[in-house]
Amino acid sequence: MAGEVAKAVEALEGFDVSYETNPMGTVIETETTDELFAAAQAAHDAVDGDRVSTVLKIDDKRTRDIDASEKVTVVEEHLGRPATNRDA
Question: PANTHER family, alphabetically (predicted)?
Answer without folding.
Answer: UPF0045 PROTEIN ECM15 (PTHR33777)
